[in-house]
Design brief:
Blueprint lengths: L4 H30 L5 E4 L5 E4 L13 H4 L2 E7 L2 E7 L5 H6 L7 H5 L1 H15 L1
Antiparallel strand pairs: 1-2, 3-4
Length: 127
């Protein structure tokens, strides 16, 4: 019995969406792990303390925890496409990453396509 391609896609769409969500959850966790190094402090010669922040090229250090807590993901379906985004709505994230060269998403997003593809193939094989 032949199954029309449209029907086949509709049948496996929930598995594909779950695979996207699993991959996105892993990326969110990886990003949060990388930006969880706390801001350090050093005591100056006169007793005052100074914050030790990240250097250019390093991931931002965790100060208030707001950025760390706001890393999120969303997967949506639109006709025959599934899209997944990993993002933050923290207003200072973009200047941190672009102007101050403190990568937030860099390494993880380079691997996102392979991770999602592997998750989708695994989900389809299980169906």
């Amino acid at each position: 019995m032949a199954v029309p391609a449209e029907q086949l896609f509709e049948d496996i769409l929930p598995a594909i969406l779950r695979a996207h969500e699993v991959a996105a959850g892993k990326i969110v966790s990886d990003v949060q792990d990388r930006i969880s190094v706390p801001v350090g402090y050093k005591i100056g010669p006169k007793g005052g303390s100074t914050k030790i922040r990240s250097k250019r090229g390093e991931s931002p250090r965790k100060d208030t925890g707001k950025l760390h807590a706001d890393i999120q993901s969303a997967s949506i379906t639109d006709n025959d496409q599934v899209s997944t985004s990993v993002f933050t709505e923290v207003i200072y994230a973009e200047p941190l990453e672009n102007d101050l060269d403190r990568p937030i998403f860099g390494m993880e997003l380079e691997a996102v396509e392979d991770l999602i593809l592997d998750s989708v193939i695994e989900a389809i094989e299980k169906e």
